[in-house]
């Protein structure tokens, strides 16, 4: 997908890159190849990565589960972990907003 840079108005192909901020935290961002402006997308730490792995496993369980109420329970757990990850990412964004 082609997107437009807020800073230089040039168009470029949207691609997510990542960089380690410290031992635990990584940031995922889009960089404009023209003016090198960087737009952070999300931040992750160890807890975030553990949740992501768990969500992946739960999605597999969800697809295999035939019992409807068990399926709903799995879905709720996925939603909870997704919300927690969103919170983690937003908190990290606050902490590291001046780094990227
Ligand atoms: Zn630009």
What does this structure look like?
The chain is α+β, with helices and mostly antiparallel strands. The chain has one domain. 48% of the residues lie in helices and 24% in strands. The protein has 2 helices and 5 strands; from the N terminus they run βββββαα. A 3-stranded antiparallel sheet has the order 3-4-5. A two-stranded antiparallel ribbon has the order 1-2. Strand 1 and strand 2 form a beta hairpin. The longest helix is centred in the last third of the chain and has 29 residues. It is elongated and about 55 Å long. It starts with a strand and ends with a helix. The site of zinc ion has 8 residues, from loops.
How much helicity do the residues have?
Answer: 40-55%
- Provide the succession of SSEs: EEEEEHH
Main β-sheet, spatial strand arrangement: 3-4-5
Average pLDDT, to the nearest integer? 96
Question: What is the rounded Rg?
Answer: 17 Å
Question: Could you tell me how far the N terminus lies from the C terminus, measured between alpha carbons in angstroms?
Answer: 23 Å
General shape: elongated
List the uncertain runs: none
Unique ligands: zinc ion
How many helices in DSSP terms?
2
Give the helix/strand class: alpha+beta
């Amino acid at each position: 997908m082609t997107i437009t840079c807020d800073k230089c108005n040039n168009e470029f192909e949207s691609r997510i890159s990542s960089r380690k901020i410290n031992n635990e935290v990584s940031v995922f961002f889009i960089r404009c190849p023209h003016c090198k402006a960087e737009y952070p997308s999300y931040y992750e730490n160890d807890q975030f990565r553990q949740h992501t792995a768990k969500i992946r496993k739960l999605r597999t369980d969800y697809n295999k589960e035939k019992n409807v109420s068990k399926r709903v329970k799995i879905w709720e757990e996925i939603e909870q972990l997704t919300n927690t990850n969103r919170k983690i990412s937003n908190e990290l964004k606050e902490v590291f907003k001046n780094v990227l």
